[in-house]
C-alpha cells in the first residue's frame, strides 16, 4: 500500500468507513436501488418495490431509515450511496447511461455494487488534469494519467448524517505524487492513496453488501 502520509492499514480504514454506507442492513434492496438509479431516472418506492418483489410500504419504511438518501420534488430517490443523477465533477459511463458520483472514491466501489464495468471521467483537484479510468467490479483496468491518487480527510471526522459535506467534499482525484503530497500537507490528518489502493479500500469497506451472495 502506498499512502501520503503514513496512515492506518486499509483494513482499519475500511472498518472506520463501513458504517458510512447506508443499506448494508438490507444489501439486496440497496444494490437494487443503485441499479435503478444507474438507469438514469429518479426511483420511487413503488417502482423499487415492483422491481424487487417487495411491499411498497416496507420499501418506504426502509428508505426512511437510511441516511443520505436524496430525493427530488416528487419524493423519488435521485441520489444514494454515492450515485447521483444531479451533476457533479465525477461522471460514470455504465450500462449505456451517464450518472454522476458524489466523490472520486465512489467511482471505484460502485462498479462492483452495480456489477458492471464503468468508464470514469473527472479532473485532478490540484492541476485540473483530465482523469480517465476504466473500473471493473474486481479491479481498476486502466488509468490516465498513470499516477493517479485519491485524497481522503483525516480518519474519524466523517458524519453519517451528511456524508457529502463531511467526507465527499474532501475526496478527490489528484494527478501525481507531488500534487497529492501538496494536498495532504496543507490539511492536518489528511492522507492520499494510489488509485489501486483506494479501490481495495472500497472493496473492503463495502463487503457487507455482498454477504448474501458470497462473492467478495
Structural description of this entry:
The chain is an alpha+beta fold and 216 residues long. The chain has one domain: Beta-Lactamase (2-Layer Sandwich), CATH 3.30.450. It has eight helices and twelve strands. The protein has helices at residues 10-18, 27-38, 45-52, 56-65, 106-114, 163-166, 177-185, 195-205; strands at residues 3-4, 70-71, 77-80, 83-84, 90-93, 100-101, 118-123, 130-135, 140-144, 148-152, 173-175, 191-194. An eight-stranded antiparallel β-sheet has the order 2-3-4-6-5-7-8-9, covered by helices on one side. Strand 2 (70-71) and strand 3 form a beta hairpin. Helix 3 (45-52) crosses helix 4 and helix 5 packs across helix 8. The protein is globular and about 50 Å long. The mean pLDDT is 91.
Summarize the model shown.
By secondary structure, the protein is an alpha+beta fold.
Classified by CATH, the class is Alpha Beta
Work out the number of β strands: 12
Helix proportion: 25-40%
Number of distinct helices? 8
Q: Largest beta sheet, briefly?
A: 8 strands, antiparallel
Poorly predicted runs of 5 or more residues: none
Please write the string of helix (H) and strand (E) elements.
Answer: EHHHHEEEEEHEEEEHEHEH
What are the salient characteristics of this protein?
216 residues, alpha+beta
Amino acid at each position: 500500500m502506498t499512502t501520503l502520509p503514513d496512515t492506518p492499514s486499509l483494513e482499519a480504514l475500511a472498518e472506520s468507513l463501513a458504517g458510512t454506507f447506508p443499506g448494508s442492513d438490507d444489501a439486496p434492496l440497496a444494490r437494487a436501488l443503485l441499479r435503478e438509479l444507474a438507469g438514469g431516472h429518479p426511483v420511487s418506492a413503488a417502482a423499487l418495490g415492483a422491481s424487487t418483489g417487495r411491499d411498497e410500504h416496507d420499501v418506504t419504511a426502509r428508505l426512511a431509515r437510511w441516511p443520505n438518501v436524496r430525493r427530488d420534488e416528487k419524493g423519488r430517490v435521485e441520489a444514494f450511496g454515492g450515485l447521483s443523477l444531479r451533476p457533479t465533477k465525477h461522471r460514470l459511463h455504465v450500462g449505456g447511461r451517464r450518472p454522476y458520483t458524489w466523490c472520486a472514491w465512489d467511482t471505484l466501489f460502485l462498479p462492483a455494487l452495480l456489477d458492471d464495468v464503468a468508464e470514469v471521467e473527472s479532473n485532478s483537484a490540484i492541476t485540473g488534469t483530465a482523469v480517465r479510468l476504466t473500473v471493473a467490479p474486481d479491479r481498476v483496468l486502466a488509468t490516465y494519467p498513470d499516477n493517479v491518487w485519491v485524497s481522503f480527510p483525516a480518519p474519524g471526522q466523517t458524519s453519517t448524517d451528511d456524508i457529502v459535506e463531511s467526507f465527499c467534499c474532501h475526496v478527490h482525484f489528484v494527478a501525481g505524487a507531488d500534487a497529492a503530497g501538496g494536498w495532504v500537507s496543507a490539511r492536518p490528518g489528511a492522507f492520499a492513496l494510489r488509485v489501486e489502493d483506494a479501490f481495495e479500500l472500497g472493496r473492503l469497506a463495502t463487503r457487507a453488501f455482498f454477504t448474501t451472495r458470497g462473492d467478495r
